[in-house]
Amino acid sequence: MLDKQAFLNVVDLTPLVSIDLVIRSETNAILMGERLNEPAAGYWFVPGGRIFKNETLEQAFRRITRAELGIELEIEQGQLLGGFTHLYDTNFAKTPGIGTHYVVLAYQLRLPLSLDQLPSAQHSGYRWLGEHDDLSRVHANSLAYFPYLR
């Protein structure tokens, strides 16, 4: 694992690759968590996480679903929505002048999750949000998934 400064250098110089989990309810709402960390702290955002060096997509998917949802799922259980670009003016360390660039593989899953049983390490709370709800606090990068509800 890289120390904080080494990882900040990576964030400054390269794009990161991550997986977003677009979890849909029976009513087509999307699971959103209120982010605790930068980038996007304070916004509603879908669960997800970075893919680590030497980690396969399948391994990353299992690790991320376990960490973000509390259940380990296989990548075949999701449907790839596509690749997305997420650009932020901020970074995990809040260092001025360094933005964060993610190349995101978004996977859609339909799961009946209980909000009170979801992990709290990355999000202060969870909600199901549909396209007709107030989406003003949903980050633009997560808003990109709402057209896939139709």
UniProtKB/TrEMBL annotation:
The record marks 123 as: Critical for catalysis. The keyword Magnesium applies. SUPFAM superfamilies: Nudix. Binds 1 Mg(2+) ion per subunit. The keyword Kinase does not apply. Its cofactor is Mg(2+). It comes from the Bacteria. A motif (Nudix box) lies at residues 49-70. GO terms for molecular function: GDP-mannose mannosyl hydrolase activity; metal ion binding. Residues 12-150 form the Nudix hydrolase domain. InterPro entries: GDPMH, NUDIX_hydrolase-like_dom_sf, NUDIX_hydrolase_dom. Mg(2+) binds at residues 48, 68, 122. Keywords: Hydrolase, Magnesium, Metal-binding. NCBIfam families: PRK15434.1. This is NUDIX hydrolase. It comes from Methylomonas koyamae.
